[in-house]
Amino acid sequence: MFEYLLMPLSKHVDDGFGAVGRSFHEAADQLRQSNHEASARWMHGHLPINYLYRHAIELYLKSMIIVAHRRLRLPSTDGAYEPIPKIKVVNNFEKIHNVHGIQALYDEMKRIFVTNRDLIAKIAKTDWAKIPEDLETSIATVESVDPGSTVFRYPTSDSPVADKQKSSFKNIETDVLLEKMNSDGPKQFALVMVNDNNEVVESFALDDKPMPELRDALVCAVGILSGAQLGVLMELGKY
Prior knowledge:
By secondary structure, this protein is mostly helical. The protein has 9 helices and 5 strands. It has 2 domains: 2-159 and 211-236; 169-206, no CATH class. It has helices at residues 17-33, 36-40, 46-72, 102-115, 117-121, 133-145, 160-166, 174-181, 212-236, and strands at 86-89, 92-95, 169-171, 190-194, 200-206. The protein starts with 16 loop residues before the first helix and ends with a helix.
């Protein structure tokens, strides 16, 4: 059934969302394995990797929704079936292509599998309504940091708290910096700004691993969804 993978993306049963998601996922893995972050940490090298993982999560979710929606021929908002599903975002319904919030996509995926559990059981061996708790927690973590898929792509976004946390260089109190520099820990790379009287005005220090909890959530979610997306294709990807 996977012969479509050798066809143009438009011929894929999920319109190519899964295949493109997998390419973003693999690109992020390659950058991590090549030690890209260590060599580019001063230039915020973690940001493109986080974006690639986050985008892969978005595309995996869209793939699973589209496959299930089409296999079950689920009704749209007016009760008729349409091949392009719509996702509820707050109080509006948007075409899936226009939705970038992974929480809304995750909620729709979960709703489909839970609501149609008995129907899916007739055509699939896997109980897709059983969703790992780790996935739910990871999705919520990523959504809280980057709800609009902009935090890792731009220097500034609609999430000022995340923008401050994501920078490889951060403000640091001078006394804290001196304490770190005099400790037995790793070497500290920093910039100290002084005035004409040689008084310290501001200090900045390199953060080698910005937002580690977020990276853990991204890796957890993309790992679970990678296998789940493939499984949904195998069991529901026949129309």
